[in-house]
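Students often ask why we bother encoding 3D structure as a string. The short answer is that it lets us treat folding as translation between two languages. Here is a chain of 688 residues written in the first language.
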Amino acid sequence: MAASVDPVARIAALRSELERHARAYYELDRPEVPDADYDRLLRELLDLEAAHPELVTPDSPTQQVGGAPDTAFAPVVHTVAMMSLHNAFDLEELRAWHQRVERRLDGPTLDRFAVELKLDGLAISLRYENGQLVQGATRGDGRVGEDVTHNVRTVADIPETLTGDYPPVLEVRGEVYMKLSAFARLNQRQTDAAKVDGKAAKLYVNPRNTAAGSLRQVDASITASRELSFYCYQLGYVEGGPELTSHTETLAWLGTLGLPVNDLTVQLSSLDEVEQRIAAAEAMRHELDYEFDGVVVKVDRLTLQDELGADAKAPRWAIAYKLPPEERATRLLDIEVSIGPSGRATPFAVLDPVFVGGVTVATATLHNQDQVAAKDVRPGDMVIVRRAGDVIPEVVGPVLSERDPNSTPWTFPSDCPVCGESLVRNEAEAATHCVNHRCSRQIRGRIEHFASRAAMDIEYLGEKNVDRFVSLGLLDDVADLYSLDFAKVLALEGFQEKSVDNLRNAIEGSKTRPLGNLLFALRIPEIGQVNGQTLAAAFGSMDAIMEASVEQLSAVDGFGTVIAEAVHGWFASDAARDMIARLAAAGLTMQAALPVRSGEQTLEGRTVVVSGTLQNFSRDGAKQAIVERGGSSPGSVSGKTFALVVGADPGASKVTKAEAAGVPILDEDGFHKLLETGRLPEAGGSAD
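And here it is in the second language, the structure alphabet:
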């Protein structure tokens, strides 16, 4: 039997470890562990203190908020303390909080909740006097923060001057954060600068730490260059102002003063609705241009908030529901390199399996040579692993406090691990490639892609059979599929007459696949499924595409010079032309099917993009309706797009691009009218 835990010793150890992690997170902006691991330690301490209340002390991390300021910035004493929030990690804990709130309320009905996204950024308090921004301060330990006024003035979302009927004094709380798009641009600038200097790029790890570090820059111009954003979520202190009765009413009033309020905050009337909102928030976790790690639930009525009050650390009238963790720490066992179908050499981490983001992860991408160097992860390191939705898991970085002092940096191999030929990296690219076109991994990869469902859809082939056929010399490229020696296949172990007939029929049937599928199947640079269909429709035949100039290709809707040059260069090679000649001789489709058009051509020559789910059309049905009326319907928005039709859950990037380009956006009713008349309902004008 395991020895029982000494609560005094364990509590002391937990407090020491949590204080170290809190300092790394709040003050240094260099967290050593994922949030989930910190929360697990804090929960263990909470449970021990609940079982041994005599051991609770005022300086325990369970009784503190954040970390004490320890920087060059001047201290700011908050007029009203900036408290933290208690957490719920599952629905049972959320329901337990709800029951505690109901028990404390004597009389009033708990009938409304305000539900907000919990953004992953840095808490800030802003003070306005007579409508002018006079101070910005970090939360610090909740009582004393840091004066970062010169930096918050650089955040575009934070107004210098309030609008509307503002009070004499207003302190508002909110979150400074970095959008994912801004974070990507920042790291791209780092990469570009490193190329100029000839050095390895120093990349930032995540938006939250980068936002916090940016706000603490002594040079405000650096903060300004980071493109920070802001949402307010709470009224701190006010002198004057209207009589407010609810939190949602308060947020609406702050919005009238010119302060940004998150439009995804909702008012709900029951805990069932709150739980449904949490599920919806989790589903949209990767659809927004910012990170959030939970949902904050607040009692909406201000009188009930006052009645409930607060404990030493947090208000009783609010709780933060933490979404399942998507970052965890585990051991990096090794770094290996895989060779893709195009020859790209990609380093990946071999991990001690860890459960993160809903799945068990044993490998994670390290992207490229520069990323490994920038993150400086080494075999044997404890590393932080992130998984976002369906995105391939990645290693965020090492836990330096646990690194073996004798470890050495990992170096990228010089030779292909498959064929042994030298790996090559062009100066202008981050990727390293095996340039041996005859590398067996590349041959297998090209055939696997060609036969995939989205390409030529050759059933019964499969990766294992491709591997066997290439290894035995039965296949050397995709055109060999159409001259495969089935007598030799039948002689292989595991094959019978029936299975060989199935494979033969599947290969024969692939000859009828549309030209767009073939273009995608050939792995032409920049040509995915949508561009393959677009290219086929634009030129009508393989011959026309092969003979098209860069200028003609760039004129295709949604293409441009980069795609056009890549396509033109591929078709210019003798190997590509020989391949296409062999495929044509085998009887594959080399002509695009003419669109079936019926009825009045109301959209002749017009490009209409569809995004989201429509009630009365399937995705393909909507596109067919457009084509039947003389129009085209590619998968992306461009300046040539006539209109964007949006249904439920449209692609955010398409909507943003349409708004930026001034492309009209139609709902389903507008789409019906457009199909019928060719006119834009909003403007009432002709499509001519």
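Translate back mentally: The first strand starts at residue 75 and ends at 77. Keep this in mind for the problem set.
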